[in-house]
């Protein structure tokens, strides 16, 4: 065996040595294979050369080594710790050199061949993903080494296999020259994190093959040609195809689209192997300046997906991948960008099967070079070009047979340079049937799509209208937002406003929300850990938790909002017109897979319901559909029609009756509560009483309503800043969170100016203002009563120079006890001015605990919008106008101070906020703030609540 101890290969820019050329990946065939996943012996060293390679020899005794699970990351299995940086390299930037402190994991696996392992033929050892660099030995013979963490690498090993025990030794280094190419915004997680498989390769078996399956929408035919290195036959039973490899066949066929993912089972048979194939016929083209599939332009309603599991990191099992895909389908997502590397190959099988458009991205990002103005950027340095081409080839060759993959992406945030051009040229040459994407070059020299990230609404509209200028090539290209709507914490706001632009301008072919899931790491004390929780010397905090799913894959309100905004059927109209407008927003499917229902609701409760016959409209078509007559005997009150589109039958991703789209049409307006001011304020018992209210005589503060004690009722303008309020450090100076804090809105003082017990009202005059500032809010509380109920009218008049928006405007108070919450208004989930699409008016109930949204870093959350009335803690509140309701077992100040959910400890009081208004949410954690119409300006305002004892607690 080789006793080479040199670690020069770690810093060598070459992609590797000894590995086989890349080829198509397939999950199964009739050739024998052996999974080498499972428990491996493991030894961790601090440096790349701390140990010699004698462990790779047969007979080495690793009995005292630890064990790790493969696939896995050793830092998530108790050896070392994970580290998170967004774009900063966590080591000195001196390419291609890496630190001496280079955690190195030696892995050992003994295996015997199964009894049925054929005695003849070759064998291949495949690694589907190792971060960041591996050197491999089998039975003491060195096979070679490779880099390219999320790419497959294979070695020919047939000649080395032995009938008895075999020893597979793998040395993995956390850092290598490859790390410079893998500076994606995520945890650094070394390890053998994808499958390791031994594949028997019988004589005459398939090596590489390329399925070309196009669709001609004019003739309704599919053309299939399978090119294979080893000649054979291709059969597609359902289409009566039985043809030689390399021979094209054209037959009538159904097309594949993400909406109608028709796959045909086929077999590629060579003399030595039968490989099952799943063929989808579809043609991707750039025509009329648009991305078209099967002759029709499409609209991406996408997400960026990193691979993530809160315990296993990027080592995902099939069930988790399937959960991602079904969750996407259930939430109307139709596209995935595999940010920022090719996913586990099985994920793409699922995309083919369930139907998702895929932008498949190469494992490439050199973002950290932005710190030095992109000097020394590997993508513009010829020495690195072979490594870049290797990454392109390993991506394209592995994934080229998936109908779901419609666009190749060169990588992410790698600046510009010759290496990228070389990659694009290679990809265009190898696979002319798909388009090439890369966001980092706004001139689009190498790409077929103009792509941007986080452009604000105004710019997107200019691009949509073709008013953005730019080089001629770019002006001729379709536009996508490969990232937008940064889903960090509460938000993103403004999704609907983007979607309206996408729908209004053909050139805008949609976008991909950043991102799918929070990368929180399950932690025994912190709930979910984020950057800095492992003592990293450089980190980017909770910027790694910016997904539409919480780490445990529970949908966040952001995902529910997105689902509503991108729903494939628009259900709109005027509830008094007797009809509802149904618009098919699919790009390919008609509405025959859906059935429709109506319900007529009064004061939030369904009075009657039924089915609604809707024609099977073609994509883009609309119809005005007659609603039934208003149900006879419907009670008086505020009324709505709710019309739903549901799955007519079970699908692979959701059962029959799953709601795909809905619309709510107002029929009549709400009657605003009236309280006659008939009661008189009366002094007595050290207080003032007015109807059911008891007030402090000196301060005018409310003490109780009937039997219900109330504390601390006063104006509140502070909310625990959201990640979007705080904004990212590089954003404009107009980040509201820091401005609010600078102004002191989190420490407002309430000066009492007067308590006036008049004829029919108790009036309390105050001025609410922060220390050290000359601006404030003159606030008057006017209480009246009809004997049973109290009406509070709050009048707010700003004084001073208020250029900063207010976080919120309303009152807060404490209740001694509250658990169940009932309300009539928006829900079921939270909503803010620019995240309110998914909120539907109904009668609702929940509990104080369930009203909380568990953002990994605690922040403002949980407001229910459009609340007409609510009952909690024995109190009933009616709003004039409707209000935002929030209730929690801690104060806003506690929420603001918390870093993790585990910091939130319930107190004795339930704090209730009744808000007249909230500042919008926006997406400024990495993107634009709220649009002007969602800003909460400090302006004179007046709002009222009617408060009474509800009799139930
Ligand atoms: C983008 C980048 C993503 C992620 C995001 C912010 O610039 O492409 O990887 O960092 O910003 O979360």
Automatic annotation (TrEMBL):
<dbReference type="InterPro" id="IPR006101">
    <property type="entry name" value="Glyco_hydro_2"/>
</dbReference>
<dbReference type="InterPro" id="IPR004199">
    <property type="entry name" value="B-gal_small/dom_5"/>
</dbReference>
<protein>
    <recommendedName>
        <fullName>Beta-galactosidase</fullName>
        <ecNumber>3.2.1.23</ecNumber>
    </recommendedName>
</protein>
<dbReference type="InterPro" id="IPR006103">
    <property type="entry name" value="Glyco_hydro_2_cat"/>
</dbReference>
<feature type="domain" description="Beta galactosidase small chain/">
    <location>
        <begin position="693"/>
        <end position="948"/>
    </location>
</feature>
<dbReference type="Pfam" id="PF02836">
    <property type="entry name" value="Glyco_hydro_2_C"/>
</dbReference>
<dbReference type="InterPro" id="IPR013783">
    <property type="entry name" value="Ig-like_fold"/>
</dbReference>
<dbReference type="Pfam" id="PF16353">
    <property type="entry name" value="LacZ_4"/>
</dbReference>
<dbReference type="Pfam" id="PF02929">
    <property type="entry name" value="Bgal_small_N"/>
</dbReference>
<dbReference type="GO" id="GO:0005990">
    <property type="term" value="P:lactose catabolic process"/>
</dbReference>
<keyword id="KW-0378">Hydrolase</keyword>
<dbReference type="InterPro" id="IPR050347">
    <property type="entry name" value="Bact_Beta-galactosidase"/>
</dbReference>
<dbReference type="InterPro" id="IPR017853">
    <property type="entry name" value="GH"/>
</dbReference>
<dbReference type="InterPro" id="IPR014718">
    <property type="entry name" value="GH-type_carb-bd"/>
</dbReference>
<dbReference type="GO" id="GO:0009341">
    <property type="term" value="C:beta-galactosidase complex"/>
</dbReference>
<dbReference type="InterPro" id="IPR036156">
    <property type="entry name" value="Beta-gal/glucu_dom_sf"/>
</dbReference>
<dbReference type="InterPro" id="IPR023232">
    <property type="entry name" value="Glyco_hydro_2_AS"/>
</dbReference>
<keyword id="KW-0326">Glycosidase</keyword>
<dbReference type="InterPro" id="IPR011013">
    <property type="entry name" value="Gal_mutarotase_sf_dom"/>
</dbReference>
<dbReference type="GO" id="GO:0004565">
    <property type="term" value="F:beta-galactosidase activity"/>
</dbReference>
<dbReference type="Pfam" id="PF02837">
    <property type="entry name" value="Glyco_hydro_2_N"/>
</dbReference>
<dbReference type="GO" id="GO:0030246">
    <property type="term" value="F:carbohydrate binding"/>
</dbReference>
<dbReference type="InterPro" id="IPR006104">
    <property type="entry name" value="Glyco_hydro_2_N"/>
</dbReference>
<dbReference type="InterPro" id="IPR032312">
    <property type="entry name" value="LacZ_4"/>
</dbReference>
<comment type="similarity">
    <text>Belongs to the glycosyl hydrolase 2 family.</text>
</comment>
<dbReference type="InterPro" id="IPR008979">
    <property type="entry name" value="Galactose-bd-like_sf"/>
</dbReference>
<dbReference type="InterPro" id="IPR023230">
    <property type="entry name" value="Glyco_hydro_2_CS"/>
</dbReference>
């Amino acid at each position: 065996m080789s006793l080479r101890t040199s670690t020069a290969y770690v810093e060598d820019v070459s992609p590797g040595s000894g590995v086989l050329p890349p080829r198509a990946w397939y999950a199964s065939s009739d050739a024998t294979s052996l999974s080498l996943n499972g428990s491996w012996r493991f030894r961790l060293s601090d440096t790349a050369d701390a140990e010699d390679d004698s462990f790779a020899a047969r007979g080495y005794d690793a009995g005292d080594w630890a064990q790790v699970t493969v696939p896995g990351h050793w830092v998530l299995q108790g050896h070392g710790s994970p580290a998170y940086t967004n774009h900063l390299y966590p080591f000195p930037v001196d390419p291609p050199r890496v630190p001496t402190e280079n955690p190195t994991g030696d892995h050992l696996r003994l295996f015997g061949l199964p009894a049925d392992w054929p005695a003849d033929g070759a064998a291949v050892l495949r690694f589907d993903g190792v971060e960041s660099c591996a050197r491999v030995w089998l039975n003491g013979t060195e096979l070679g080494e490779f880099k390219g963490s999320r790419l497959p690498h294979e070695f020919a090993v047939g000649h080395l296999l032995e009938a008895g025990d075999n020893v597979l030794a793998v040395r993995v280094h956390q850092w290598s020259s490859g790390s410079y190419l893998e500076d994606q915004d995520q945890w650094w997680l070394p390890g053998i994190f994808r499958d390791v498989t031994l594949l028997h390769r019988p004589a005459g078996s398939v090596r590489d093959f390329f399925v070309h399956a196009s669709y001609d929408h004019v003739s309704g035919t599919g053309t299939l040609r399978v090119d294979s290195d080893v000649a054979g036959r291709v059969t597609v039973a359902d289409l009566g195809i039985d043809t030689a490899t390399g021979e094209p066949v054209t037959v009538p066929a159904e097309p594949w689209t993400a909406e109608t993912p028709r796959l045909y089972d086929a077999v590629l048979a060579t003399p030595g192997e039968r490989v099952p194939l799943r063929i989808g016929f579809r043609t991707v083209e750039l025509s009329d300046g648009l991305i078209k599939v099967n002759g029709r332009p499409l609209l991406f309603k996408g997400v960026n997906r990193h691979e993530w599991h809160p315990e296993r990191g990027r080592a995902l099992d099939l069930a988790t991948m399937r959960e991602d895909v079904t969750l996407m389908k259930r939430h109307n997502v139709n596209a995935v960008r595999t940010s920022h590397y090719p996913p586990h190959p099985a994920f793409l099988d699922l995309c083919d099967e369930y139907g998702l458009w895929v932008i498949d991205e190469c494992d490439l990002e050199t973002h950290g070079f932005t710190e030095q103005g992109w000097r020394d950027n590997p993508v513009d340095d010829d020495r690195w070009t072979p490594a870049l081409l290797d990454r392109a080839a390993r991506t394209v060759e592995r994934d080229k047979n998936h109908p779901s993959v419609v666009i190749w992406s060169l990588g992410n945030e790698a600046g510009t340079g010759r290496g990228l051009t070389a990659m694009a040229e290679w990809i265009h040459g190898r696979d002319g049937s798909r388009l090439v994407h890369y966001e980092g070059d706004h001139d689009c020299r190498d790409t077929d799509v103009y792509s941007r990230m986080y452009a604000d609404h105004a710019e997107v509209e200019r691009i949509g209208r073709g008013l953005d200028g730019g080089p001629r090539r770019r002006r001729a290209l379709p536009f996508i937002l490969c990232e937008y709507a940064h889903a960090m914490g509460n938000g993103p706001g403004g999704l609907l406003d983007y979607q309206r632009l996408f729908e209004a301008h053909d050139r805008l072919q949609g976008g991909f929300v950043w991102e799918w899931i929070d990368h929180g790491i399950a932690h025994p004390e912190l709930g979910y850990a984020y950057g800095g929780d492992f003592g990293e010397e450089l980190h980017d905090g909770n910027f790694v938790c910016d997904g539409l799913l919480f780490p445990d894959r529970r949908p966040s309100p952001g995902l529910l909002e997105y689902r509503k905004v991108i729903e494939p059927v628009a259900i709109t109209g005027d509830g008094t017109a007797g009809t509802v407008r149904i618009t098919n927003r699919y790009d390919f499917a008609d509405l025959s897979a859906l059935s429709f229902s109506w319900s007529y609701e009064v004061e939030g409760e369904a009075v009657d319901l039924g089915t609604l016959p809707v024609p099977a409209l073609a994509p883009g078509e609309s119809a005005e559909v007659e609603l039934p007559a208003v149900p006879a005997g419907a009670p008086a009150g505020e009324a709505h029609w709710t019309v739903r589109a549901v799955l007519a039958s079970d699908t692979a991703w959701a059962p029959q009756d799953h709601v795909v789209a809905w619309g709510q049409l107002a029929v009549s307006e709400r009657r605003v509560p009236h309280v006659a001011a008939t009661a008189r304020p009366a002094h007595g018992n050290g207080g003032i009483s007015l109807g059911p209210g008891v007030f402090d005589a000196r301060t005018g503060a409310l003490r109780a309503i009937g039997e219900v004690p109330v504390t601390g009722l006063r104006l509140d303008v502070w909310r625990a800043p959201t990640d979007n309020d705080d904004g990212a450090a590089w954003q404009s100076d107009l980040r509201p969170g820091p401005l609010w804090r600078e102004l002191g809105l989190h420490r407002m003082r309430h000066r009492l100016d007067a308590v006036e017990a008049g004829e029919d009202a108790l009036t309390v005059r105050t001025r609410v203002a922060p220390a050290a500032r000359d601006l404030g809010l003159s606030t008057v509380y006017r209480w009246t009563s009809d004997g049973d109920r109290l009406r509070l009218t709050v009048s707010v008049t700003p004084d001073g120079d208020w250029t900063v928006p207010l976080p919120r405007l309303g009152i807060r108070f404490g209740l001694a006890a509250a658990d169940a919450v009932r309300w009539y208004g928006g829900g079921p989930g939270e909503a803010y001015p620019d995240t309110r699409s998914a909120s539907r008016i109904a009668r609702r109930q929940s509990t104080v605990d369930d009203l909380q949204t568990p953002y990994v870093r605690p922040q403002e959350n949980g407001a229910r919008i459009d609340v007409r009335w609510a009952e909690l803690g024995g109190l009933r509140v009616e709003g004039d106008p409707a209000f935002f309701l929030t209730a929690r077992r801690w104060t806003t100040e506690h929420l603001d101070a918390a870093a993790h959910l585990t910091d939130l400890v319930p107190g004795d009081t339930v704090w209730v906020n009744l808000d007249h208004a909230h500042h919008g949410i926006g997406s400024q954690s990495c993107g634009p703030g709220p649009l002007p119409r969602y800003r909460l300006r400090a302006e004179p305002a007046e709002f009222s609540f009617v408060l009474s004892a509800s009799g139930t607690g």
